[in-house]
Write a structure and sequence with these properties.
Among the domains are: 96 residues, no CATH class; 55 residues, no CATH class. 59% of the residues lie in helices and 2% in strands. Helix 2 packs antiparallel against helix 3.
Length: 229
């Protein structure tokens, strides 16, 4: 979180063995404080409430991610009963937490309010990013967050693609451009744009600009003569 700008940079300090010792010390201190002040039943309720809160947020995330229709989002699991299962996963934890008593409800509410306060007080002005919810808004003509697609490409690189991924079909139907000798990258991009004219929207100049923008942003990395589309 510190690397992402959501916490102060001092929190990400590492020891000689690359252990985030300040985070470890803070976590241990918080656990010791809870154990010292509360009995076992209350600790169990707080832990259960925290898990319910996480499950609620995960259910919301599944809804948002799937409705965002981001091309690079490639979930490796099925979700039976979608979206009603996720809706139940959002509503039911609220009742479960409320049924655990006022202390548990107060703790959960406090965690949520603390997170919201910290975002507006510290993180909002330091992080230029948004969630997949903006891609849902884009479907109705509003804002979207482009770098999120790049993050999903990194995830795909780590976990691989699904069995029915259309990548092979796309490659088999692609136009190929053979280049001999030492040709500048910009010249190759210009020739590629000419091949794509008429097959994709936009003029060649716009296609060239898109290639260059994607390469600079990391969405189309090009290394040693190979480009990842």
């Amino acid at each position: 979180m510190a690397r992402d700008g959501l916490l102060p940079p001092a929190v990400q300090a590492l020891s000689g063995r690359r252990v985030p010792y300040r985070c470890v010390i803070g976590t241990v201190a918080a656990v010791v404080l809870v154990v010292a002040l509360l009995d076992a039943v209350k600790i169990a309720k707080l832990a259960s409430a925290f898990l319910h809160l996480l499950f609620l947020l995960l259910s919301m995330a599944v809804l948002v991610m799937r409705e965002s229709r981001i091309p690079s989002y490639d979930p490796g699991f099925r979700s039976p009963g979608y979206p009603w299962m996720q809706v139940a996963g959002i509503v039911l934890p609220v009742f479960f937490i409320a049924d655990m008593g006022w202390l548990t409800g107060l703790f959960t509410t406090g965690v949520v309010l603390l997170g919201v306060w910290w975002y507006f007080r510290y993180a909002r002005g330091r992080v230029e990013r948004s969630g997949a919810i903006y891609h849902v808004f884009h479907r109705i003509g509003q804002y979207r967050f482009e770098p999120l697609d790049t993050e999903f490409r990194v995830i795909l690189r780590e976990k691989g693609t699904r069995k029915d991924d259309p990548f092979e079909a796309v490659v088999s139907q692609a136009r190929f451009l053979d280049v001999e000798g030492d040709v500048p990258f910009l010249a190759v991009v210009a020739r590629a744009a000419e091949l794509l004219e008429g097959r994709v929207p936009g003029e060649p100049a716009e296609i060239v600009a898109g290639f260059l923008e994607g390469t600079a942003a990391g969405a189309t990395p090009a290394v040693k003569g190979v480009a990842l589309p």
